[in-house]
Amino acid sequence: MKGYLKEKATWVGIATALAFLLIFLCVWLTAYHDVEDRIGNLRIGIVVQDEQFETGHVEKLKEAIPFRVEQLTEVDEAKKELEGHNLDMVMIIPRHFVQDSMAEGAEVRYIINQAAPSMTKQAMESAANNITDKMDEQLLSQRNAGSNPEEIETLSTKGESIHAVQPVIEKMHETKAFAASMIPLLIILASYVGSMLLSLNLYSSASKLREHYPAWRIFLSRFILQALLSIVLALVTIYSISGFGFVIHGSLFLAIIFQGLVYFTFMNISMMFLVLFGPAGMIFNILVLSVQLVTAGIIVPRELLSDFYKELGSYLPATYGTEGYFSIIYGGLGLQREINMLLLILSVTLLIMILKLGVEIIRKPKKA
């Protein structure tokens, strides 16, 4: 044991383990603090197709819903907003709703996008049933006010359940396998941790190569190696997902390009911290990993995070990796926006490393 404690690497390992624990505790507990108090940040779109459903009823409905509510005029428009993750659920009051409610045959349609965090889907499904129950109570009380008391008592004695409204929940982009909901978390976690370990070893190799090769050549060689590895790992990832029976929505080629870009961006971000801070950069990599898992919207929807973490997440690649994988696994509007954002983040990362390389070359004393 004394031999272990005399080695510097032992203390580095102990410090790393402590850093992992403390960083994850601090980030996750602060990020998820008061999440339940921000549940009202989830968004519902309402489309009223029945002209007899008065404006006053719509306003009362908005007040009764404990979420942000937006009224839209067309179902297609609402679906587009739902697919773009600008809404979490669409509620539709269909034509003849008021008339059908008088005959106990009214339905309220709800559309929930399954390409979303599990917490969002569960909250919206629960909300759909609760909203319908409130509408049902209100309509029944209005109808019973003008009914014969003996008639109501007779129905109650028979034990008949009276409902004026029933919910019809439509699940957009439904994938029944539970494992599908875990794929974004699995890929993001594995990709970044793998990139961290790869970057650490490449950095170690580069330290030895500096004695024999110029800095710019090492940088260029590493860049090419990372690009090739990203393509290989992307092929393995996408074909493995497909091999386990999951449907890849959209273009297979585009999915491979997207995953390759996710890997390449992760590799360069993790390498950037090592280039800037040396081995101590791994502390920053652990910090970035923990922040990305919180802010990417994999476990808890980003709308429920504090403004600080929500804004921070918009600058990190895991956010766009997660959104892209929701589209790949469930279907959606495509990957173009996510690819563009990853390219932007990658460009900034490469620019920082190139500037650091330039400073090193300028400062390096010339051999006589």
From TrEMBL:
It is found in: Membrane. Residues 15-354 form the ABC-2 type transporter transmembrane domain. GO terms for molecular function: ABC-type transporter activity. The chain crosses the membrane at residues 12-32, 177-203, 223-241, 247-266, 273-300, 339-359. It comes from the Bacteria. Keywords: Membrane, Transmembrane, Transmembrane helix. It is a multi-pass membrane protein. GO terms for cellular component: membrane. InterPro entries: ABC2_TM, T7SS_ABC-Transporter. It holds the Pfam family ABC2_membrane_3. PANTHER family: PHAGE INFECTION PROTEIN (PTHR43077:SF5), TRANSPORT PERMEASE YVFS-RELATED (PTHR43077). This is ABC-2 family transporter protein.
